[in-house]
Amino acid sequence: MRRHGFQISLAVAALLFVVSLGVSLVRVSEQYAAEVRIRRNGIWITTQAQVELVRMSAMVQRFSLRVPGVTADDLSLQFEILLSRMHLLSSGEGPVEFGELQRLRRRASEIEAMVAPLEPLVDQLAAGDLAVAARLVAALDALEQLVMRANLQLHLERQADADHAQGGLRSLHWTLLACMAGLIASAGLLILLLLSRSRQARRSQRLAEAAALRQSEAERTLRVLIDSLPAMVSAYDRQGRYLFFNEAHARFHGLGAEAEVIGRTPFELGLSPDAGLRRALRGSAAEPFTEYAAQDPDGTPRTLLATAAPVDDGHGAAGRVVHAAFDITGRKAAENQVRHMAEHDSLTDLPNRVLFAARLAQALAAARQLGGRCGFALHLIDLDRFKAINDSLGHHGGDRLLLAASERMRACLRRGDTLARLGGDEFAVIQLGITDEAQVTRLAARLVAVLGRPFVIDGCTLHSGGSIGSVLGPQQGQSPDALQQRADIALYRAKAEGRGRAVMFSPEMEATLVERRALEADLRAALAAEALTLVYQPKFMVGEARWPNARPSGCEALLRWHHPGRGMVPPGLFVPVAEEAGLAAELSRFVLRQACGQIGAWLRQGLEMPVAVNLSALHFASDQAVALVEEALRHSGVPPRLLEVEVTEGVFIRNAAAARATLTALRARGVRVALDDFGTGYSSLSYLQHLPFDVVKVDRAFVRELHQDAGSGARIVDAIVRLVHGLGAEVVAEGVEEPAQLELLAQLGCDAVQGYLLGRPMPPDQLEALCALARPPSAAA
C-alpha cells in the first residue's frame, strides 16, 4: 500500500512537471523549447537516479533490520529499477547540451564500475547474509554522492543559462515562473515523499533498537538464570575453545574472568575435560548422563554427573557443544552411607545377613571357577550363655559383650576373610583360601579360645564362650543355603556336646537332623490328632505306703507317645524336639487339658485324686504358664487345689524374677507348686529360700544312694528333709524301687514317695482299680 502511494505521488509530480513544460512550449520558440526540454530532461535523469539510489539504500536498511513486509523480491525489484536509471544516466541517447551531462556520459565506464559490485552484494543480502548490508549501503552512498553532485551542477548550469537569456526572454518570464512553480511543486512533493520515507526509516530504526534492547534484557535474564543454577554449564566451539561458562563452572574449576578464559581450551587452562565432552566434540550425537571422577581446586576428589550435546548450526551441521555437569559427591556419599547401613550391623558395624549372603555367594562362585583347587570355609558361631548375661546386665551390658567378642574374633581373621553378625548372638565367618581341613580347624580352635577367655564388662568378669559349627565349601555344599544349613547342623552338635567347642560338619550329622525333623513333623501330626496319651504314677504317703493295698494320696501325669512306626517314643526324646520347634505351649496345653479332664472324670465317679503336671521351663519367662493353667481349669471346671504344677530349676536360670512372679500367681489361684529334681541344679538353696513351693521332690539320684549303713546318701536326704520342713513344705521322694529305701525314707521323715516299688505309671482305669482295692487309712493304721 505504501509503495502504491509513493508511485501515485510520483505520478502527480511528473504530471505537474509535464503540464508546466507544455505551457512553456506554447510561449517560446521551438528552439528554446527544445533547449528547455533537454535541460529538464537532464535534470530529471539525475534526479530520478538520485531518488532511486535513496530508495535502494532505504530498502537495504529495512531488509537488514528484518522489517516486516520487506522481502528479497522487493529488494531485487528495486535494484532493477536503479539499474535502469543508472543506464539511462550513462547512455549516449538524446541531446547533450549541458556540459555536466556530457561529462557524466564520458564517465560511463566509471559509473558502470561503481554499479557492477552492487549486484553480487544485493544477491548475498537477499540470500540472508546480513553482514554485506553495511558494504552495500556504503557503495550506494558513494554513487549517490556522484549523482547528487551532477544534479547540483546541472541546476547551476541551467540557472546560468537562464540568467544569460533573461534579457531576451522577458516575455517568457511568467511562463518560466509557472514552469518553475511546477518544478518546485514537483520537487516539494518529492521532498515530502523522501521525508515520509525518512520518518518510516527512523521508526523502523527505533523498533529495531527496541527489539535489540529486549534481546539484550532477555540475554541478561538468561545469564542470571544460568548462573543461579547448581549445574555447571559451559559451551565450546568445534575446536574445544570456551565460548561460555556459568559461575558454578567457574567456581568448581577455579576459572578467572571471562576475558581470560573465552577462546582458550580447557587443556590450555590446566583442566582435563571428561570423556563425554571429548566424544561430543568429535561427533554429532548427544552423550548420556555419566558419572565421572574429578577434583575441585583444593584437590578434593569429587563425583560429577555430566552430559554433552552438539548444537545444530542451522544448516544441519554440528556447531558448538554444550556441556552440563552436576556435583553429586554428597548424594553419592549419602547413597554409600545408606548402602553401608543396609549391609552392616548397626551395633558392631560388621556385615549383616544381607552382605554376608552376597559374599558367601561370591566365595562359592570363585571356588567353582578354581575347579576345587582352593575352597573356603563357613563358620557359624553362637555365644554361650549370652541370654543369661544379657538378662543380668541388661541390654547395654549385652551390647558391650557383643562388641568385645566381635573385636576378639576380628583379630583372628586374615585380610579378605569376612566376619558377619547374623542377628542376636549369632555370628558367621567366611574363611577364604582353604586348601586343607586343618586350616579350618585351626581357625575354629582360635575362635573358641579367644571367646573362652573371661570378659570384663562394666567392672564385672563374665565367662561366656562360643560354640562353632564349620563346613567346607564347595565340597560340602553347592549352594549358600546348603552350606548354611550344614554349618548350622554342626553348630547344633557343638551345643549338644557341651558348648564351648568347635565341630566340623559330617554327613552323619545331616542324617541325624533329617531324623529329628521327621520326628518333629510326626509330633505335629500327633498333636493335631491328639494321638498322645497320659499315664499316671501314684504317690503314697510314707506311713500308708509301708502297708499292703495302700491308698494313693495323689499321682503324677506322665506323657506317652506311641508312634505307629517308631513304637514307644520316650519323652526325653520328643519333648526337647517340641521345645525347639515351638510346640512347647501346644504340648503343655494338651497335657493340662487331659489331666484336668481326668480329674473331673474321677470327681464324677466320687474319686478325689490330686494330679501333678510337669510344665516346660519356657513358659515361666512370661505369663504363659499362668494363662495355660487358667485355660485348663476354666475348660474343665475342676478345683484348683487338685492340680499341682511341677517345675525344674531351669525356670530360674532363664529369668528368676519372672519365674517367681509366675509361681506366686499360680499359688494365689489355689494351684499347688512343686520343685522337681531338687538337688541337681546350681542354686537350689537360694531358690528354696526366696520362692514359694508347696512340695519339694528329692531327685531319684539321691534316693538310689540310700542304704542301711546310713552312708552319705542318707545324710543328704536327711538334710534336704530338714531344710524343706523348716521352710514349711512337703518332701516327696521319687524313684523308690527297694523296700530298704522306703524304710529309710520313713525313718528320715519324708512325707510321700513314688516309684516302681509302689506303682508304675498306669492308665486311668488301672489307677481307679488300685484305689478301689485300697484299704481306708483307718484300716491301714
UniProtKB/TrEMBL annotation:
It comes from the Bacteria. Keywords: Membrane, Transmembrane, Transmembrane helix. Residues 288-340 form the PAC domain. Residues 516-775 form the EAL domain. Residues 374-507 form the GGDEF domain. The chain crosses the membrane at residues 174-195. Residues 218-258 form the PAS domain. The keyword Metal-binding does not apply. Pfam families: EAL, GGDEF, PAS_4. The keyword Membrane applies. Gene3D superfamilies: 3.30.70.270, EAL domain, PAS domain. This is EAL domain-containing protein. It comes from Roseomonas haemaphysalidis.
